[in-house]
Amino acid sequence: MAGREVAVTAALALLSAAIALYGPPLRSVLRRTFSLHKAQSVEDMENFFQLVRNIVPAPTLKKHKGQDGQIGVVGGCQEYTGAPYFAAISALKVGADLSHVFCAREAAPVIKSYSPELIVHPVLDSLSAVEEVQKWLPRLHVLIVGPGLGRDDQLLSNVRGIVEASKARDIPLVIDADGLWLIAQQPALIQGYQKAILTPNKMEFSRLWEAVIGGPVDDRDHRGSVLRLSQALGNVTVVQKGEQDLISNGQQVLACSQEGSSRRCGGQGDLLSGSLGPMVHWALLAGPEKTNGSSPLLVAAWGACTLTRQCNHQAFQKHGRSTTTTDMISEVGAAFSKLFET
Ligand SMILES: NC(=O)C1=CN([C@@H]2O[C@H](COP(=O)(O)OP(=O)(O)OC[C@H]3O[C@@H](n4cnc5c(N)ncnc54)[C@H](O)[C@@H]3O)[C@@H](O)[C@H]2O)[C@@H](O)CC1
Ligand SMILES: Nc1ncnc2c1ncn2[C@@H]1O[C@H](COP(=O)(O)OP(=O)(O)OP(=O)(O)O)[C@@H](O)[C@H]1O
Ligand SMILES: [Mg+2]
């Protein structure tokens, strides 16, 4: 054998030995780097499907009502009654057992009339709003703050008190819509709270960025931007919705590109924040063992984004341009089974 061939054979043998020895840790480092800087591989996507499947509670006859999730939605005012309804009914359709809405007095009869399945509390604009909601906090697993809340100062001041009371009880918070308006006014309210998930659309993301970092968002680096905002907020989980949903806890950035459709009717974001309610409860209950070391909130967020986009896809197949959020909500059961129960 020529000297050159011997060298090549020896090098290959060395490389095989190194891969055998260091392959698994090397792959894990590569995977982390990969998910930080590049789109996820198909293998990573499969992993996340599996992680979501791991957190979904197994069907059993042994449970009592409430164990699979008691979710509260804080929102609903004179103008907006659809958004809190969409969020609260989505939480139920995904699998929560009970769904409460804490709204302004005028919104309550309207929301109740949409659905007998929701428990509606007309307390949000009362002088004792914080105490009224506080009474229910011991029973709630997750609070979704903001869908259809509006921007009335008195209402927002009450919601500030509710957020503080929830933090004091370590209750996970999903903050969306006008809840994000409040956070943009007072970022300290959520700074460093590890059980918070913010779900901004494009406008809401720009407002948060302006408030927390300042200046315009760098549109050439969406991944870097979501990572930076999460870090600046003290590693609060941020879900930036858009053509791709980008999810970060300040350490990792995940992308969700599940096929949806071209239809962007109002209320899709409410379906997302509502479905996050039970997903967050299940992920935290399952713990890092079931999420294979990944942050439970990242797994919950990826699951809810994937589900919302699949609902959009299925509804669009049936209804085309007339697709509305109600059509998407009708798809939750089938979409969930297809994605997470195979
Ligand atoms: N049926 C209902 O009751 C609904 C009520 N909603 C509520 O309406 C309130 C305000 O929410 P908005 O999302 O309108 O608040 P924003 O103030 O964040 O959005 C305002 C405007 O931004 C524009 N915009 C959206 N995406 C954009 C993009 N990619 N580039 C440039 N402009 C863009 C929208 O057209 C909208 O006019 C919230 O309380 C929300 O929950 C919505 O959830 C939709 C459904
Ligand atoms: N360009 C897009 N292509 C595909 N899916 C998208 C696109 N933009 C948003 N979505 C999906 O739609 C859902 C809602 O995002 P959107 O940005 O519409 O929220 P929103 O503005 O808060 O909605 P809402 O009307 O409920 O307030 C998310 O799950 C997101 O993945
Ligand atoms: Mg919204």
UniProtKB/TrEMBL annotation:
Subcellular location: Mitochondrion
Enzyme class: lyase
Statement: the UniProt record of this protein carries the keyword rRNA-binding: no
Record-linked InterPro entries: CARKD, Ribokinase-like
Keywords: ATP-binding, Lyase, Mitochondrion, NAD, NADP, Nucleotide-binding, Phosphoprotein
GO BP: any one term: metabolite repair
Domain of life: Eukaryota
GO cellular component: mitochondrion
Cofactor(s) needed: Mg(2+)
Positions of ATP binding: 241-245, 260-269
PROSITE patterns found in the cross-reference section: YJEF_C_3
Assigned EC number: 4.2.1.93
An annotated Gene Ontology molecular function: ATP binding
Reaction it catalyzes: (6S)-NADHX + ATP = ADP + phosphate + NADH + H(+); (6S)-NADPHX + ATP = ADP + phosphate + NADPH + H(+)
Binding residue positions for (6S)-NADPHX: 148, 201-207, 270
Record function comment: Catalyzes the dehydration of the S-form of NAD(P)HX at the expense of ATP, which is converted to ADP. Together with NAD(P)HX epimerase, which catalyzes the epimerization of the S- and R-forms, the enzyme allows the repair of both epimers of NAD(P)HX, a damaged form of NAD(P)H that is a result of enzymatic or heat-dependent hydration.
Name the record gives this protein: ATP-dependent (S)-NAD(P)H-hydrate dehydratase
Organism: Dipodomys ordii
Gene: Carkd
